[in-house]
Design brief:
By secondary structure, the protein is mainly α. Helices cover 79% and strands 0% of the residues.
C-alpha cells in the first residue's frame, strides 16, 4: 500500500512537473484563460464519459455543494487567478507565492482536520518553501505588480482551501465523480471568463497547441487530479502538499536538461532543501505510525 501511494505520488509530481514547459510552449499559440478552460472542461468531459456507467454514484442532490465548492476552489479560482497573475508577476516569483500552498495546507489541516503540527513538520514546511525560493530565484527579474502578488496569494489560498475541503469531504462522495464535476464546473467558469475577455480567433490550431491541449486534457487535468484527490483522501493533506514542493524543482530541472538552461548553485541548494523538507515531514509520520503499532501490541 505504501509503495502504491509513493508510485501514485511520483506519477503526479512527474505530470505536474512536465506540465510547465509543455504549457509554456502551447501558450504561445493561445490566450491563457481559454487554454485553461478548455483543458479543464475537456478533461471533465473525458473523465465523465469513461466513468459514465457508474453515474448512480453521482448523487447530485446530496453532493452538489461539494462539486460546486471543489470546482470553484480547485479549478476556477486556482487556475483563473494563476493565469491572470502570471501576466503581472515574474514567473519565478509567482511560483514561490503559489507554492506557499503547502504551508497553508499544513496550518489549515491542523486547525480543521486535526492533523499533527510538530516541530519537525513545521521545520520541513519552512525548508521546502525556502527550497522553492531557491530554485525559482532566477525568474525573479522583471516588473512586480502588487495586484499580481495579491492574485498569487489568493491562488495559493484557493488551492489550500480546496485541498483541505477535498480531504474533509473525500469519504462522502465518489472520488472520480468529484474530479469530473470539479473540472466541468470550473472549466465552464474559465471558458466564460475567457470568451468574455479573450478572442477565440487568437488560437492557432497547430501541432504544438493541439499536443499541449491533449496533454493537459488527459494527463495534466483528468489523471493528475484523480491522483491528487486519491492521495489526499488516503493520507495527511499536509504530507501530500509537502511533496508538491517537488513540482517547481522538477520543472526547473527539465528546463535545464531539455531547454539547456543553466544548472546553478541556487538550483542545487533548492533541491537539497526540498529533499530535506520531505524527509522531515515524512520521518515524523513514520515515527507516529510506529508508535501506534507499539501501543497496539502493548494493548494501550
Amino acid at each position: 500500500m505504501k509503495l502504491k501511494w509513493f508510485l501514485m505520488m511520483a506519477g503526479l509530481i512527474m505530470i505536474w512537473g512536465v506540465s510547465w514547459p509543455i504549457y509554456k510552449l502551447a501558450l504561445v499559440y493561445t490566450p491563457p484563460l481559454l487554454f485553461a478552460g478548455m483543458r479543464c472542461l475537456f478533461g471533465g468531459i473525458l473523465l465523465g464519459a469513461v466513468i459514465w456507467k457508474t453515474r448512480d454514484r453521482i448523487q447530485w442532490r446530496k453532493n452538489w455543494k461539494i462539486y460546486v465548492v471543489t470546482g470553484t476552489l480547485n479549478i476556477a479560482l486556482f487556475y483563473g487567478l494563476q493565469t491572470v497573475g502570471l501576466k503581472l508577476v515574474p514567473s519565478g516569483l509567482f511560483s514561490v507565492i503559489v507554492y506557499f500552498q503547502p504551508i497553508l495546507v499544513g496550518l489549515l489541516a491542523w486547525l480543521w482536520l486535526g492533523e499533527s503540527m510538530t516541530l519537525p513538520k513545521v521545520l520541513g514546511l519552512i525548508l521546502g518553501f525556502l527550497g522553492v525560493i531557491s530554485v525559482s530565484a532566477e525568474g525573479f527579474s522583471g516588473h512586480v505588480s502588487i495586484f499580481g502578488i495579491i492574485l498569487g496569494i489568493l491562488s495559493a489560498l484557493s488551492w489550500a482551501l480546496g485541498t483541505v475541503y477535498t480531504k474533509k469531504n473525500s469519504h462522502s462522495v465518489d472520488s472520480l465523480w468529484m474530479v469530473a464535476f470539479q473540472c466541468l464546473i470550473g472549466g465552464c467558469v474559465l471558458m466564460i471568463a475567457g470568451l468574455s475577455s479573450e478572442n477565440w480567433s487568437s488560437i492557432v490550431w497547430n501541432d504544438t497547441f493541439i499536443w499541449g491541449l491533449s496533454f493537459g486534457t488527459i494527463l495534466g487535468i483528468a489523471l493528475s487530479w484523480i491522483l491528487y484527490v486519491i492521495l489526499v483522501k488516503t493520507g495527511d493533506a499536509s504530507v501530500v502538499a509537502t511533496f508538491t514542493f517537488l513540482v517547481p524543482m522538477l520543472a526547473v530541472i527539465i528546463g535545464t536538461v531539455l531547454l539547456h538552461e543553466p544548472f546553478t548553485k541556487l538550483l542545487f541548494l533548492g533541491i537539497v532543501l526540498i529533499v530535506a523538507s520531505i524527509y522531515l515531514v515524512n520521518k515524523k509520520q513514520k515515527q507516529a505510525a510506529e508508535q501506534v503499532v507499539i501501543q497496539g501490541k502493548m494493548g494501550v
